[in-house]
């Protein structure tokens, strides 16, 4: 984690020194340009997990084996999660679910079923607010603790991983996650399954991005069950044809206990 935090400070500290120098030498244009550059770089760091700008944003696993992890966000959703679970059970495929705490509170039996069937149940915030990335450290901590509690209460397990809503992060994300013993997880392949309409196009997109160690981002919340099932069936067939093994996130990261 240290080396990643350095990326942020290695950039910001020299930039602040340069701005001070520009102000000292009354070079206003240079000072303004530097401030704009800082904002742009900071914004890219916030929006792109793979840059690991503020900390150790885990976006893939070891590339040494032809293994990938499927991650499903925004559930549990009674309209689609049960059908997905049935498919995964039938195909003997383990998965990782980044659940929204308040949906776990609303569907505790479904959350318990996810865990009982051998999948990972992880933290995707309590309320999934699009403003989560603007929360103070204290508010973010409460938000994550509420989700930890909801999952523990429903399924008897304490999550080890946190995926921030929309994948946005800032230095607080990593500080708070560390306090709660959570590792921050993103993805290396984004399916855009809630945006792209046709399942075959979603699968084609995932296929283009596939690589050993890939963490694939999918959704079981806010997606029609039929579309989800068609997509996952076709994706599983594609993965099998290409010789990829689907494993849980903890196994992909060699952290399975
Ligand atoms: Zn989400």
Write the layout of secondary structure elements.
Blueprint: H1 2-24, H2 28-47, E1 67-73, H3 81-91, E2 96-99, H4 101-106, H5 108-116, E3 120-123, H6 137-155, E4 161-162, H7 171-179, E5 183-184, E6 189-190, H8 199-209, E7 215-219, H9 225-241, E8 245-246, H10 249-252
Parallel strand pairs: 1-2, 1-7, 1-8, 2-3, 4-5, 6-7
Helix pairs in contact: 1-2, 3-9, 5-6, 6-7, 8-9
The protein binds zinc ion (ZN).
What does this entry look like structurally?
The protein has 257 residues and is α/β, with parallel strands linked by helices. The chain contains ten helices and eight strands. The strands form two sheets. Strands 1, 2, 3, 6, 7 and 8 form a six-stranded parallel sheet that branches. The model has no long low-confidence stretch (mean pLDDT 94). The structure holds zinc ion (ZN). Zinc ion (ZN) is lined by residues 73-74, 124, 128, 165.
- Number of domain units: 2
User: How much beta, percentage-wise?
Assistant: 5-15%
Uncertain regions: pLDDT < 50 for 5+ in a row?
A: none
**Roughly how many Å apart are the termini?**
21 Å
């Amino acid at each position: 984690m240290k080396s990643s935090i350095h990326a942020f400070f290695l950039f910001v500290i020299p930039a602040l020194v340069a701005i001070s120098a520009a102000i000292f030498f009354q070079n206003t244009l240079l000072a303004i340009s530097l401030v704009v550059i800082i904002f742009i770089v900071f914004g890219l760091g916030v929006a792109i997990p793979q840059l690991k700008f503020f900390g150790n944003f885990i976006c893939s696993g070891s590339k040494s084996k032809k293994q990938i992890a499927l991650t499903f966000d925004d559930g549990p959703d009674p309209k689609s999660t049960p059908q997905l679970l049935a498919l995964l059970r039938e195909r003997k495929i383990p998965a990782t679910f980044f659940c929204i705490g308040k949906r776990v509170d609303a569907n505790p039996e479904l959350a318990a079923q996810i865990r009982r069937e051998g999948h990972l149940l992880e933290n995707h915030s309590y309320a999934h607010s699009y403003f989560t990335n603007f929360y103070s450290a204290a508010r973010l901590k409460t938000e994550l603790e509420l989700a930890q509690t909801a999952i523990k209460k429903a399924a008897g397990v304490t999550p080890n991983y946190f995926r921030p809503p929309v994948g946005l992060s800032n230095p607080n994300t990593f500080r708070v996650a560390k306090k709660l013993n959570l590792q921050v997880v993103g993805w290396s392949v984004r399916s855009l399954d809630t945006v792209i309409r046709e399942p075959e196009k979603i699968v084609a997109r995932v296929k283009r991005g596939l690589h050993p160690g890939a963490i694939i981002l999918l959704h079981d919340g806010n997606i029609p069950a039929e579309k989800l099932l068609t997509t996952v069936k076709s994706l599983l067939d594609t993965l099998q044809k290409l010789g990829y093994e689907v494993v849980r996130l903890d196994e992909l990261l060699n952290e399975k206990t």
